Each structure stands twice: as structure tokens, then as C-alpha cells.
Amino acid sequence: MSGAQRTGADAEAGAGATVGGLGEFSLLARIAGRFAGAPSPYGPGDDAAVVATPDGRVVATTDLLAEDVHFRFAWSSPYDVGRKAATANLADVAAMGAVPTALLVGMALPAETPLATVDGIVDGIRDECAPLGARVVGGDVIAAADRVTLAVSALGDLQGRDPVTRRASEAGRLVVVGRLGWAAAGLALLRAGVEDARFAPLLEAHRRPQPPYRAGPALALAGALAMCDVSDGLLGDLRHLVESSDGGAEVDTALLPRDPLLDAAGAQLGIAVEDWLLSGGDDHALLAVLPPGTGFAGGCDIGWLRPGTRAGVRVLGWDTGGREGHAHFGGGPG
Amino acid sequence: MSGAQRTGADAEAGAGATVGGLGEFSLLARIAGRFAGAPSPYGPGDDAAVVATPDGRVVATTDLLAEDVHFRFAWSSPYDVGRKAATANLADVAAMGAVPTALLVGMALPAETPLATVDGIVDGIRDECAPLGARVVGGDVIAAADRVTLAVSALGDLQGRDPVTRRASEAGRLVVVGRLGWAAAGLALLRAGVEDARFAPLLEAHRRPQPPYRAGPALALAGALAMCDVSDGLLGDLRHLVESSDGGAEVDTALLPRDPLLDAAGAQLGIAVEDWLLSGGDDHALLAVLPPGTGFAGGCDIGWLRPGTRAGVRVLGWDTGGREGHAHFGGGPG
After folding, report:
1. 3-state class of B49 per DSSP?
2. Which residues does B21 contact at the CB level (< 8 Å), separation at least 6?
3. In which order are the strands placed within the sheet that holds B248-252?
């Protein structure tokens, strides 16, 4: 899609223009034009894209994000929603120890969705990928839905390394890289209507998470025995590691990465910061099991995991109300 | 997911059970259990799947299908909807000359969706992939939507061949492999409430298209200069080939693959069969440009395409009402 064509598509759509006013092909052309950073010989625009996989394997994942479930336009700009939609997939790729290379983007849109909203989402997705060297290579759009629903798939390159799964075969230290509880605190502040400027970094963390993408391949290089991203809350995702490893784990609450801003927000809302740290999702921190004695710059030691013990999760220094075990918690959709 | 776990998930959900009654993880486990044909070391169940790409490249495509836009449960069983959702992607992969290897499946479901509906869709997707050697390696599900919306992404293997794009660099014969107009005739019969048993093959063609998947790689091997699948109707998709090639094409209506059953349905409904042949979508036939003198068993010669002439599309033997040119037609969403 050339710049000239993009201008043409824009000209069709003045201020106040909506998805319903544009045909499918015009809408696709408009979106492809905004995604086109580096031109590609194949896709968008053909039946399918062709993506290089020099490693001989490709990491692949998909996620759905729906308006009023995973985001609200009252609280997030379309641009932030786009970045967030890319984030969930890019973090999943990083959590396998891989580098993201390509995204496919499906959008189901109500007919009355303003084109400016679509543009914002598209730009957000593009800008979240670009610094990682990944780009959008294809997609689909339908103007039929009661809410904006985004279906993003991501591909990634293992660069010759083994994938790091959720299953640890040896005991190791539990290490967190990235933030815990920031996005949850931001969401709690928005829900309570508190938009105090001093909490701006927390609100920003909800609107635009900043996962430590590059730490994924780095943790793999450092010999990580298992890894996942923290999208359902630390305890929920730790449970996945523990169950996959038939193991036991211990987390010391006093060791969790804590910030004075979280404490201030907790005090303001009367919420225990530990709940955010242990159960808050959406920051997409990386949770890894590292061999004893292995250091990782920027990582925070929070406990240990031992496979094969079937001992479940034990939390020191905080009463989680029994939620640390194998019981199902942490949520249905919504 | 083991058989024992699947039984557990089934036990949770008796007759009449719905998506809303099950948590996200239980629903994902149930779906993963049904998809699990051949066990995989990675995914479903990890942050992402790992798919082999021995060719060093991967073909990737994504499509959205929404209830009451692309299918209706009044006319199609959940199982047929699942097969159809896989079909669109598998045909896109075949149209690049590639062999499908893996699918990612996202489902946005109303909370009141019966679990039996989900099971049917999942089984349909699985069974459409299996004969091709492809399988579902990952997915996501959310219980938030006003209609069942399926987001399927497919990956494919070029097996060392160049991808066959929509752009022809040399002139050649236009060849169709597969059916034209069958699905459109079936849909017209359903809309008119005609479910006469003699038209069963047409109704079936709408409910469960049968694209000539294996002809994709075979046409590539035969030296196809350009190719696409016919999902928007022959003229609509031919226009994509012609525009991508800055070319001209001629189609002779008398040469299109026609069937007495189509004629009978057209006579019954008072619809010209040519409209179905030229503009009916959803059969996912393959439309290829083959070098002059190249034969292809099972292919139907319908005309020619010449790149670089900017002559547009000319249809012989039928008045298309001017729709054969470069004007935008063939449909917005829905």
C-alpha cells in the first residue's frame, strides 16, 4: 500500500466517518496502509503472508481482547488499546524465550465504530511491535459485533534455543522480571474515580503495560528451566508452573518487588498492596525458574520451585485465604 | 490434556450447560481436550505453541467468521460452522501453494452459548484440518459477545517452493479448480426456504464447502504464475489478480464449470446461474494463471490473463451490468 493510496483512503473518510460507511476492501486498504512500515513482497494483500523462520520452528500464539472486558474506551484511548492488544501476544512469545517477528490482526467492529478509533488501534499495535522488530503481516476485519473485539496472533523466532515451557524438570529459584500489581492498582484507581496526578504511572501501567519483552530471550540464554508471563496474577500463573511440573513452590511476600507508589495507592483506596502483588494481572512480568546460583540482572528472587513434589504453592508472610493451593480461582472470562 | 481430564470436564457440564457456567480455564481445558488428536510437547497449554517450519519460512493467514454474517445456526450445525471456519484459512494457505500445518483458534462466545455448540464447532475445526495433516496448536476463548465469533489463524509449509502470489509477471491461461456457484446456490435455496432433497448437494456445499486444498501445492508444482482462492466470487477475486498484475483478463462464460443441478436450482428460483458462477463466493475454488501449454488434470480453462496491459476484466457471453471493471463491488462485510 503506497502513501498515495493511503491519502486516498483518508480522503474518503472525513471526521465523524464510521466503519459502516466504508466497504470491507476500503477498510482493509486503509488499515494495511497504516500498518505498512517496511514494505513486504507478500502480504498484507495476498491470500496469506510469508514469514521467514530461519530457526526451522516458529512460536505461535493468539489472544482475544474485548471492549468492556479487557479494556474500556472511557479509560483507555484507542491507541493504548492497540498497544495493549499487541502486548498480550508479544509477552506470550517472550515467555517462550523467543523474539516476536510477525502479527496477524483480526478486528470485529460495530458498524458505528469511528474510523478514528480504528486508526488509533492500528497505530498502537504497529508501534508496540516496531521496537522489537516485529510487524503486522496480515489480518481481517468484519463490521459485525456489539463491541470492539480484537483477535491478535503473534509469531516468534527461537533463534536456535530450546523453547522455555511451563514445566520445570529441575528445582530452581523463582525470579520475577518486570512489574507486579501496577496495572491492577491503576485499574482500581480508575474504578474508584481517583485520577490524582501522583498516581499517573499506575494509571499508565493499566493503560499501556510495559512487559520486559527482551528479558524473555535473555532468561532463556541464562538457562531458565521454566517460564511464563504473569497475565492472570502471580499466584494464578505460578500455579500453572507448579501444576505443569507436578511440583511445589514457596513465595516470600517480603521479597516481592514493591514500590512506594503502590503503597500510597493502597493506603488511598484501603486495599492491601499484597493483593495486587499476588493476584493482579496484566503487567505481563516474566516469572522464571532459574538454576540455583544463576544470576539475572534486573530479576527479583521471590522464592523457589521444586518439581515432582506435588506440594502446591505456599505463600509466606500473607494470608491469601487459601487461594494459594490447587483450587480454581483467578477467574472466568471478565 | 489426558482422556481422564477430559472426562472430568465433561462431567462438570451436563445437558443444557452453557459457556457462562464454566470458568475460562475449565472451558479452555475442555476445548484443548477435544482438539488433542496427536499429543504435542508444546501447546495447547503453554504461553505459545512451537510449530516446525523445515522450509525456513511459514505461510500465515487469519480470518474472522461471525454468526448471522458468515453463518446461521438455523441453517448450519455447529459442526458445519467449525468446518467452515477452518476452511476459509486452509484455502488461503493452499492458494499460496502451501500445505497447512497448524491452526490457532480464538472464540468469542455469548455466555448463554450451549457447551454442545462449542463442542460441535471444535470438532468441526479439528476434522477439517486432520485429513490435511494440520492440527490446532493453540487458542483463546472469551465469554463476551453478542454472537459467536471465530478468529482462526492458519500456518502452512511451502515445502521449498516459491509462494504463488496474486501477481502474475507473465501472461497465461486462467484455470479454475473446484466448484463455482454451488455454495451461493445453496444459500439462495436456504433463504428461499427450498430444502428439496434433490438440491441436497447444493445445501451441503453452502454448509460445508469442499475446497480443492491439495490442488494448491499441485498448481504451484505445475508452474502456476499467480493464484488466489475464490472467496468473494470469481469476478471479485479475478479483479484482485488483475489489479495485482496491472493487467487485463478475459473470461468466457460458456467455459465456466456448470452442473445440471445448478441449472435446476436456478430454474426453480428464477435466478440466472451465471450470477452464481461469476459472483458467488464461499466455494473456495482455486483460480490460477498457468503458462500456455501447461495442462492441469481437473482444471477448467476459462480464459486468459495478461499482465501490464491495465485492460481490466472482460466477460464474454454474459452482461454483468458493468461489474467486471475496476469499480468497487463484491461486497462490504455481510
Report:
1. strand
2. B13
3. B226-230, B285-290, B172-177, B300-306, B248-252, B312-316
Do A52 and A41 meet the contact criterion of CB atoms below 8 Å apart?
no
Tell me the average pLDDT of chain B. Answer: 89
Cβ A33 vs Cβ A86: under 8 Å: no
Nearest CB neighbour to B58, from listed A47, A143, A155: A155
Q: Which residues of A touch B236 (CB under 8 A)?
A: none
pLDDT of residue B327: 31
DSSP B110-159: -TT-BHHHHHHHHHHHHHHHGGGT-EEEEEEEES--SS-EEEEEEEEE-T
pTM > 0.95: no
- What would the grid cell of residue A167 be? 514445566
| C-alpha cell recorded at residue B222 | 505445475
How would you label B104-138 residue by residue, b for 16+ Cβ within 10 Å and e otherwise? bbbbbbbeebbbebbbbbbbbbbebbeebebbbbb
Residues 199-228 of A with CB under 8 A from B: 227-228
Closest CA relative to residue A81, chosen from A118, A37, A31, A44: A118
Instruction: Say whether pLDDT at A241 is over 60.
Output: yes
The answer to whether A51 contacts B63, with C-beta atoms less than 8 Å apart, is no
**Residue B20: its pLDDT value, please?**
84
- Please give the order of strands across the beta sheet that includes A312-316: A226-230, A285-290, A172-177, A300-306, A248-252, A312-316
CB contact under 8 A, B60 and A140: no
Compute the distance between CA of residue B177 and CA of residue B183 in angstroms, rounded to an integer. 15
| Eight-class DSSP state of A62 | E
As for the ipTM of the complex, it is 0.89
